Amino acid sequence: MKWAETIRVLCSLRSTDDFKEELVIHLREFCEAKGIKNIAIMLQSAYEHDLLVALFWNKKDQPARTLEGVFIADYLKQFGSVNHSVWTVVSEMSGKSCRQKKQKKS
Asked: Rounded to an integer, what is the distance from CA 69 to the centroid of its chain?
């Protein structure tokens, strides 16, 4: 089953620059976790003090908070308010499947 675990930290006035590098070091440790397909770190485009970590999983387990996600959430709590949630994949598209197909002329 494919699912995503997101951990979002809302930093009041503190810059994410203070902890992004250390966060990347921690996340590299999780790249070898069984079932992890991808890890992304994202900044809110209009307000760069908000940061989101997304862990993309493909495992037989039911979607749930993982030890890796809980560790990240606990680490980020020192920088602001944290929201930790789990999302299941309903539909997935990539590459050519995302492009609009041209209709044949009759």
From this structure: 9
Is 81 in contact with 6 (CB distance < 8 Å)? Answer: no
Q: Which residues contact 7 (CB under 8 A, 6 or more apart)?
A: 52, 53, 55, 69, 72, 73, 76, 82, 83, 84
Tokens standing for 1? 């089953």
Listed by start position, the domains of the chain span 2-90
Which mean pLDDT values do the consecutive 10-residue runs of the chain (106 residues) have?
92 72 84 87 82 92 93 92 93 72 54
Q: How far apart are the first and last CA of the chain?
A: 41
Task: Give the class (CATH, top level) of 2-90.
Answer: alpha beta
Maximal CA-CA distance, the chain: 63
